[in-house]
Amino acid sequence: MASSQKAARMGEDVRQNLEVSGVWLAAAATDTGRTRVDKVNAELVTLTYGTIVAQLCTDYDYDYAQVNLQLDKMGYNIGMRLIEDFLARSNTGRCGNFRDTAEIISKVSLD
Predict the structure, then answer these.
(1) What would the pLDDT profile of 91-106 be if each residue is shown by its tens digit?
(2) pTM of the shown model
(3) Does tRNA-binding show up as a keyword for this record (predicted)?
């Protein structure tokens, strides 16, 4: 039995094709609806963040209060997008308190 794995871009479904007695069967990697998420090199993230900070410093004439304000806005917007994506993919209801929120996140992300 030979198997090959379809190359997937970040966030696409990962499927395995299995050959059984000359017939190709498409099978999900984990049949739970999960998608493949490629890992990003930590050095790339560090260099990208450093470049953004350096550009903001140049744009705001080294006014660090303004740079920090812009970084705060960027972080807030990224967090909002992550939350919206999580809620859209997990199909969960509203959380009543912080404990419920932590429980739902742990169940969905750690399963």
Answers:
(1) 887 888 999 888 888 8
(2) 0.55
(3) no
